[in-house]
């Protein structure tokens, strides 16, 4: 067994859009992402509702997003936390041989749109 100290990096970003926060939050979904991400592609989606939800799991093929600046390998995504009432969710993306990414997403209302 080999135990190594992990390399960790934290990044934050804020994006403001002129759209209703509930509408924006609804687009944070592997199915609804087809509506706004050029080249987006998923292979399998495990979901009771057919959309993102608590414990949703999905896979994306290599290069799933045409907007990516780096070709990424096939990935497995899981949503361990999802709360539509607070418009918050967490997604974990595991790309074997590359990295594990945790995305904590929160959408809040602001005057004239969302942040």
Topology:
Blueprint: H1 21-26, E1 45-46, E2 57-60, E3 75-83, E4 88-95, E5 99-106, E6 109-110, E7 113-114
Antiparallel strand pairs: 1-2, 2-3, 3-4, 4-5, 6-7
Describe, in plain words, how this protein is organized in 3D.
The termini are far apart. The longest helix has 6 residues, at 21-26. By secondary structure, the protein is mostly beta strands. It is globular, with a radius of gyration of 15 Å. The strands form 2 sheets. A 5-stranded antiparallel β-sheet has the order 1-2-3-4-5, with no helix packed on it. It has one domain. The protein is built from 1 helix and 7 strands; from the N terminus they run αβββββββ.
- Count of extended strands: 7
Roughly how many Å apart are the termini? Answer: 44 Å
Rounded to the nearest angstrom, the radius of gyration is: 15 Å
Oligomer: single chain
> Number of folding domains?
1
Q: How much helix, percentage-wise, in residues? A: under 10%
Main pleated-sheet profile: 5 strands, antiparallel
Strand ordering within the main sheet: 1-2-3-4-5
Characterize the overall form.
globular
Low-confidence stretches: none
Q: SSE order, as H and E?
A: HEEEEEEE
Mean pLDDT: 92
What class do helices, strands and sheet pairing give?
mainly beta
Content of β-strand: 25-35%
DSSP helical segment count: 1
């Amino acid at each position: 067994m080999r135990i190594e100290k992990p390399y960790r990096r934290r990044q934050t970003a804020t994006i403001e859009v002129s759209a209703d926060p509930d509408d924006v939050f609804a687009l944070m979904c592997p199915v609804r992402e087809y509506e706004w991400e050029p080249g987006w592609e998923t292979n399998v989606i495990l979901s009771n509702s057919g959309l993102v939800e608590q414990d949703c799991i999905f896979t994306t093929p290599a290069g799933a997003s045409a907007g990516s600046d780096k070709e990424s390998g096939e990935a497995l995504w899981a949503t361990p936390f999802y709360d539509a009432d607070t418009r918050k969710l967490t997604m974990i993306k595991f790309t074997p041989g590359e990295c594990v990414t945790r995305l904590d997403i929160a959408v809040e209302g602001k005057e004239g749109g969302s942040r």
